[in-house]
Amino acid sequence: MQGYPTARAGQVVGLLGGSFDPPHSAHVHITKTALRRFGLDKLWWLVSPGNPLKANGPAPLAERVQASRAVMKHPKVEVTDLEARLGTRFTAQTLAALIDRYPGVRFVWLMGADNLGQFDQWQDWQWIMETVPIGVMARPGDRISARMSKAARVYRDAKLSGRSSQVLGQGEAPRWCFINMPMSDMSSTAIRARGEW
Fold it and tell me: Which of 41, 54, 52 is nearest to 15 (CA)?
């Protein structure tokens, strides 16, 4: 599987999808926090070809992958262009393809609390919730809307406490965990607005 990251059956692999347009220190911060707090063996950045919920396309994929590899250096983290390789556009399609390609690997989908707030707009969001555990990381200003979101309400009985975050990937979905973390308000949007990308 040249060009694909490696993982063994039984390993817990976190998946952090995004446009990374551009990647920055807050992405690195949430990655290191997720590795530690969710007890992950590995974490893969899924640099997306494009976000279906965003009107304007991002910078070229190769440019974003290269920039991501320059900022994210950690032995347990791999920056990938898996969605382009797999030919998938939506998270549910990507997860189905990865589960098929990596039998026995325990994937955990990672997202910021802002994404949980709009998760019910994602294609096949309930299938995602019922297929892989989800680790949610608090970002500035998104805690309340995330906790009141449709996804949080529908799956309230599947929520693990923050103290149980280490075992998130060890159990069967649906299960999700919301963790608070030191805040960073850095954003790719702000970097682009300043003309730094």
Answer: 41
**Cis status of the peptide bond prior to 52, with omega within 30 of 0:** no
Whether 31 and 184 have beta carbons less than 8 Å apart is answered as: no
In degrees to the nearest 10, what's the CA dihedral of 111, 116, 117, 119?
110
In order of start, what are the domains of the chain with their CATH numbers? 13-40+55-81+105-117+126-193 (3.40.50.620)
- Residue 170 DSSP class: G
The answer to whether the beta carbons of residues 128 and 95 sit under 8 Å apart is yes
Q: What are phi and psi of 34, to 5 degrees?
A: -60, -45
CA distance 174 to 134: 8
Q: Check the CA dihedral 95-160-26-144 and report its sign.
A: positive
Whole-prediction pTM: 0.87
Task: List, for residues 109-127, the tens digit of each pLDDT value.
Answer: 999 888 898 999 999 999 9
> 29-85: per-residue pLDDT in tens?
899 999 999 999 999 999 988 765 666 667 888 999 999 999 999 999 999 999 999
Of residues 115 and 194, more confidence is placed in 115
CA distance 172 to 165: 14
